[in-house]
Design brief:
This protein is an alpha/beta fold. It has 25 helices and 22 strands.
Length: 634
């Protein structure tokens, strides 16, 4: 650049025009050259940015070639159609070699400051921090198939299937094994589903379908999806059905937390349910006998979608919302005694009554032809069964949203499990004891019926001398009710809505225990004619010869297995009657010449509804004669 001295105006006047133009062109060219140099320097500065750290360079080397994610401190690598779990053990050796060779120049010397354990852990921890995503985003609604992702589009609460291409934006962590084919042949699928009746098939398929998008199903249908207990012995199709569903979910998308795991969660071992965080369906094939299902609080939280906590060794717990449906295979009747609506709303039972055999009996509809491919040929299940089963699930999803689930076909199986755990359920069914608003029964009324039922079942044997022998129930924890004082407590467990109370009894002159809200819905036996009842009541006021009373009392007691007065302790004072149990009061009073047993029997026939239902007038007449004959004896 030239220098200008003196007055610029004078210089310009003294300069020739060609010279001026030449000097101006030189200045323009020089300015352009300087601009190009500055631009080149900027590019070089960009390339010569501050040196990257070990963590940054290692991240580019090991995690920069494809998408990665990290959830619950676990790394997943994109494989083109899903994110594959990569254990830390696979990454530690190459990261260790990288740190061992990472050279740094310091004061003119080459050193290796990162050849240590701490640097390896820092590289791995740094990568997990950069790639972390919430656990709730794993395995989103839909099913990952080999030819795309089956996504559900919701229009007015009705699902529509949409097959979308695979994308690393969808965090599915299970490998797709099944192709979505809406025209798949359903021949083999229908053969497998024959292990259940049509009504049971719908219950199973609709509960399985809910796993495709359970949060939306809960929003639409509430708590209609239940835990299914699949009951039955071997060779009945349960395991084959489970294998098909597991194949649809790529095996990794389905978990198998057992009932014992849920019970251990209640005991404080919360790591047992950690797999449920990313699960969409939990189907446990083995469930040994554990604590009572109706007392496992974790199972109730799981079914209703309430918060659970997962713990990892040496790490803080994680709170999550379960989004999986639950199925549990059981060979024996699980421990279950509850009757509360909360239990009925959470648990349903599917009973597998049919059996697959190599040579089924053609005359037995519960025997089906077995096909070993369902158990031992994964390719057969993947190509011939699972695609059609997926179509059935998608159809069931629509039916679930529109019509819900009818669990009526599961009620008998549920009652069978209750009766297998508590014989009093069978007692209530046999005698018609039910929850009936506005009715009440005394402990004695229930005990009279229960005692006769025990005798009829062979549970209670009364010898001629009055000695009682009890036979235990088949289930160890199922205890017999052996006394009047246990009746209210045990029966009230079966009817949570019933209320325990007391009522004054004018006969015993004291309060007796009662249960309000229960009653007998059906007469077990016929009542005596009203005219006979009136006649028997009227005779109570008549004077009866003293010498004939013991014989009649003994005959009545013998015919109806009633304890004899001589077998009971007679109080020395009448006021001690108020302290006696109801079953002893009648005969003790007879010893004090207050009440005659034969008269009391006739009175009870007319006024006690329980006796009406369980002692027919025909039996009284056949055993003791007509009312007039009985009164003649008296």
């Amino acid at each position: 650049m030239f220098e200008v001295e003196g007055d610029i105006e004078q210089i310009l006047y003294s300069m020739e025009t060609p010279e001026f133009i030449k000097r101006l062109e030189d200045e323009i060219q020089a300015a352009a050259f300087n601009s190009e140099v500055e631009q080149g320097l900027e590019e070089e500065l960009k390339q010569l940015s501050p040196k990257k750290t070990l963590n940054q360079q290692a991240f580019e080397v090991f995690f920069g070639d494809r998408p990665w994610i990290c959830a619950d401190s676990k790394l997943y690598r994109w494989e083109g159609n899903y994110y594959k779990l990569v254990h830390d053990d696979e990454l530690i050796p190459p990261i260790t070699a990288f740190c061992n060779q990472f050279a740094v120049e310091k004061r003119g010397e080459i050193i290796y400051p990162h050849a240590n354990t701490r640097s390896v852990k820092e590289v791995l921890s740094w990568a997990k921090l950069r790639l972390t995503v919430p656990v709730e985003r794993l395995n989103p609604p839909g099913i990952n198939c080999t030819n795309g992702i089956v996504r559900i589009n919701w229009e007015n609460n009705v699902p529509n299937v949409d097959l979308q291409p695979h994308s690393p934006d969808h965090f599915y962590t299970y490998s797709p094994l099944v192709a979505y084919n809406p025209l798949a042949d359903d021949t083999h699928c229908d053969r497998l589903l024959q292990c259940l009746d049509p009504e049971q098939q719908e219950v199973l398929l609709r509960n399985l379908a809910a796993s495709i998008d359970l949060p939306t199903i809960r929003r639409i249908r509430g708590r209609e999806v239940k835990v299914l207990l699949l009951s039955g012995l071997g060779s009945n199709g349960k395991d084959s059905l489970r294998e098909v569903v597991s194949t649809i979910w790529g095996h990794e998308g389905m978990t198998s937390c057992s009932l014992a795991d849920f019970a251990s969660y209640d005991d404080g071992r919360k790591f047992s349910l950690a797999p449920l965080m990313a699960s969409r369906i939990n189907w446990a094939s083995e469930n040994p006998q554990t604590s009572r299902l109706d007392k496992i609080q974790a199972l109730k939280l799981f079914v209703t979608g309430n918060k659970l906590h997962a713990e990892r060794k040496g790490k803080d717990h994680i709170e999550f919302t379960p989004k999986a449906t639950g199925l549990f295979n059981v060979n024996e009747a699980p421990s279950l005694q509850g009757t509360m609506q909360a239990i009925l709303d959470r648990i349903a039972v599917l009973q597998f009554r049919k059996t697959f055999k190599s040579k089924p009996d053609p005359n037995n509809s519960n025997e089906l032809l077995a096909d070993p491919r369902f158990a031992y040929d994964p390719d057969f299940i993947r190509t011939e069964v699972a695609p059609a089963f997926l179509n059935r699930m998608l159809k069931a999803l629509v039916d679930l949203c529109v019509n819900g689930i009818d669990y009526e076909c599961t009620e008998d199986a549920f009652k069978d499990i209750q009766k297998a755990n508590n014989h009093l359920f069978q007692f209530c069914e046999d005698v018609g004891l039910e929850a009936i608003a506005g009715q009440e029964l005394t402990a004695k009324e229930i005990w009279q019926v229960l005692e006769l039922w025990y005798i009829d079942q062979g549970t209670l044997i009364i010898a001629e001398n009055g000695k009682r022998q009890w036979v235990d129930q088949a289930k160890p924890g199922d205890k017999n009710v052996k006394g009047l004082n246990q009746v209210i407590a045990r029966i009230s467990q079966l009817f949570p809505q019933a209320k325990r109370g007391t009522r004054y009894c004018p006969l015993s002159h004291r309060s007796i225990p009662i249960l309000t809200g229960v009653g007998f819905s059906k007469p077990v036996l016929e009542s005596p004619p009203q005219s006979v009842v009136a006649e028997s009541v009227a005779t109570q006021s008549e004077k009866v010869p003293e010498q004939s009373k013991p014989a009649v009392a003994e005959e009545v007691a013998t015919q109806f297995k009633i304890p004899q007065p001589s077998q009971l302790a007679v109080p020395s004072k009448p006021e001690q009657l108020q302290k006696l149990p109801d079953e002893e009061l009648l005969f003790t009073a007879n010893s004090l010449e207050k009440i005659n047993p034969a008269e009391q029997l006739l009175f009870d026939l007319g006024n006690n509804s329980v006796v009406k239902n369980h002692l027919t007038w025909e039996k009284v007449k056949d055993e003791l004669g007509s009312p007039s004959e009985i009164l003649k004896k008296i």
